[in-house]
Design brief:
Shape: globular
Largest sheet: 2 strands, antiparallel
Number of strands: 2
Order of helices and strands: EHHEHHHHHHHHHH
Structural class: mainly alpha
Helix content: 40-55%
Strand content: under 5%
Number of helices: 12
Strand order of the largest sheet: 1-2
Number of domains: 2
Radius of gyration: 22 Å
């Protein structure tokens, strides 16, 4: 794939790849080039052929899969795209923050990097046409999106199909069929999956007792929550938390 001046691209899967200004040049392992200077400017050869600004966004381990699983391996935003103009402005600001070294520049750079990520996703959504069934397609559906917002904003509530259908201004049957068509799963299955994603995140990042977590997600007892979690994730909440902490210690 030819990347030209003003283009932007996002690699959304951990596949190996070669980036070159001349395919006849022998490739060099990137780790040798960037590490440990990951935040610095690195030159290859004469360093005059091109300038590339790169970075990465780390998705949440529990909820990030919702997004990563539906993205193509590579998203290419060409310079002629209207989104490219916004990306150029953001990248100019990112360079300015790095060079000016003003107070709060690291935080500002992180926020700008996230905006770059969002802008590339917007470009993809606009150019991709019909998305495969999933939460992202459901969020783009004007009739179904309000019901997702309700479930996201109050996952502890015992949502009834009639309530959700009313929010979508549809009949019960029509709503269930349309929801499954765009989201890939029935409404209450989606709610269960969303609760489990929130539970995984909380178990990884918080010290809230399992009983309190169960209550915050709409379960009347710890055992009911633990059974639902084990059916979905494959292990009990306590074992999941222990495994997550062990993994974190090993990575430190």
């Amino acid at each position: 794939m030819r990347i030209e001046a003003g283009d932007a691209f996002l690699l959304s899967s951990p596949q190996s790849f070669t980036l070159a200004s001349d395919l006849a040049v022998a490739p060099i392992e990137a780790a040798r080039v960037f590490s440990p200077n990951v935040s610095e400017v690195v030159s290859l050869g004469g360093g005059e052929d091109c300038l590339q600004i790169g970075g990465f966004v780390r998705l949440d381990q529990a909820c990030g899969g919702l997004l990563a699983d539906i993205l193509p391996p590579l998203i290419h935003v060409r310079a002629a795209s209207p989104h490219a103009a916004v990306l150029r402005w953001l990248l100019d600001q990112l360079v300015h923050e790095k060079l000016a070294n003003l107070p709060g520049s690291n935080l500002a750079s992180e926020q700008i990097a996230q905006l770059v990520f969002i802008q590339i996703l917007r470009a993809y959504l606009e150019a991709s046409g019909a998305l495969p069934p999933g939460w992202l397609r459901a969020l783009g559906d004007k009739r179904i999106a309000p019901t997702l917002c309700l479930m996201h904003s109050n996952p502890a509530r015992s949502w009834q199909l009639e309530e959700l259908a009313k929010a979508a201004a549809m009949s019960h049957t029509t709503f269930v069929v349309r929801f499954k068509t765009v989201a890939g799963v029935p409404p209450l299955t989606y709610l269960l999956d969303w609760r489990m994603r929130l539970a995984e995140h909380a178990l990884r990042t918080e010290s809230v007792p399992v009983s309190a977590l169960a209550l915050s997600l709409g379960y009347t007892s710890e055992s009911a929550f633990s059974n639902a979690f084990k059916r979905t994730v494959g292990m009990s909440p306590k074992r999941y938390r222990e495994a997550a902490r062990k993994q974190e210690l090993e990575a430190a």
